[in-house]
Amino acid sequence: MTRMTVNEEGVDYHLDPETPLLWALRDASNLTGTKYGCDSRDCGACTVIVDGRAVLSCSVPIGSLEGATVTTIEGLHGTHPVQQAWLAEQVTMCGYCEPGFIMAIAAMLDANPGASGEDLPNICRCGAYPRIRNAIARAAQSMSASRHEYTVPKRLSGGSSDEEHKSP
Description:
The protein has two domains: 2-73, Beta-grasp domain (Ubiquitin-like (UB roll)); 81-145, DNA polymerase, domain 1 (Orthogonal Bundle).
């Protein structure tokens, strides 16, 4: 059994500890906003936030996440400044990789509110990069101007090292 907090709720996964977080979220928790993309850590469609950092859920075994705090796109509730900027900038995408982009950008701006978006965290075939960059700038400005206090939840025990959630 692996116990973690997912979208602010305690969850016990009775799955093989090697099960990728992606499949635990989608199959066991029915949180289907997190998408399967490439299974090779290249695209970012499966990005979620673990203990305050963007993580590719396709390659993280749940056994390495005991006690972790996980936030999925469903956990942002449509109110995060990145989501609001996404709508305001009319970022038009097919929607498949969109949740991963939003999660990666939310974590990026949480860690570095002045990020410009020049180095996009994910890839997409829709070609919406100019609007995505505009949305990043808008969200960063909004968060800075309003001293926005929304941060993605982090592990209550004080966080973890960058290496803790990487696959072997």
